[in-house]
């Protein structure tokens, strides 16, 4: 079912990573820059991340012995240092996720460089090391950002969707591993209800909302692949939903043949396999089209 299956460590059948995008209240500040400071409801919804969502998730990971990945806008890293300390105490990975969750597709090259490098600097200072991974806010990665990530020594991106399995993105300045995502395993469609930023999804029950993620996992498990959840603490970290996730996690761990790992470990594993000639990924260009396609079509 998968053309180029990856041999996972320890003979595991399947690899699995829950990634949390810890946006906190960055979303409202970037969406409503003029008056976000007086919009207490969306601010409070975002502050659920450091107050309740992330501590609850970390406690579960501690109990189950899991290390996982968190993608965090740099402004959130600066604003909530105690949350960052707790994530690092659990030996989890922190990856880049913009400065204030700004959308790279709305910025020119100079702005993209400025905010990428400023985020990188914050992340390095907070974690004491170079981040390995990047996920674009709203998945809106650009060829410029891919080049910046390569230039600054990151090893992977996790914003694109061109295959079921990790693949290679080749840009002007080198290559990155892509650990693909998909809306089927994202908690935004079933749970986000946020008029201020233009989302009014019909909120699903915890079980129904998580069904799609779990079905995606089962398909990857059957095929010997990799499942990546893309979740948010203020959505899936809420009590009723996290209870469902905890039950699911315990069941999956009891199978004994699933490799849970942060994305940096998965990227390192597939890079090693590729270097040793044990695995051949598909290679995608970082910039498939040098100019807008429609403008260049002759009438
Ligand atoms: Zn985000």
Q: In sequence order, what are the helices and strands, one letter per element? A: EHHEHHEHEHEEEHEEHEHHEHEH
Rg measurement, Å: 19 Å
Task: Name the hetero compounds present.
Answer: zinc ion
* Percent of residues in β-strands: 15-25%
Q: Based on DSSP secondary structure assignment, what is the total number of beta strands?
A: 12
Biggest sheet features = 5 strands, parallel
The structural class is alpha/beta
Average the pLDDT over all residues and give the rounded result: 96
Please estimate the helix content: 40-55%
Q: Report the total helices.
A: 12
Question: Tell me, what's the shape?
Answer: globular
Multimeric organization: single chain
Distance between the termini: 41 Å
Low-pLDDT ranges: none
Overview of this protein structure:
The protein is of the alpha/beta class and 299 residues long. Helices cover 45% and strands 15% of the residues. Strands 1, 2, 3, 10 and 11 form a 5-stranded parallel sheet that branches. Helix 2 (40-64) packs parallel to helix 4, helix 2 packs parallel to helix 10 and helix 8 (206-223) runs parallel beside helix 10 (239-255). The model has no long low-confidence stretch (mean pLDDT 96). Zinc ion is lined by residues 21, 23, 97, 101, 137.
Summarize the topology.
Elements: E1 14-21, H1 26-31, H2 40-64, E2 69-72, H3 74-79, H4 81-89, E3 93-96, H5 109-127, E4 133-134, H6 143-151, E5 156-157, E6 167-171, E7 174-178, H7 188-191, E8 193-194, E9 199-200, H8 206-223, E10 226-231, H9 233-236, H10 239-255, E11 258-260, H11 263-275, E12 283-285, H12 293-296
Parallel strand pairs: 1-2, 1-10, 1-11, 2-3, 4-5, 5-7, 6-12
Antiparallel strand pairs: 6-7, 8-9
Helix pairs in contact: 2-4, 2-10, 5-6, 8-10
Bound molecules: zinc ion.
Zinc ion is lined by residues 21, 23, 97, 101, 137.
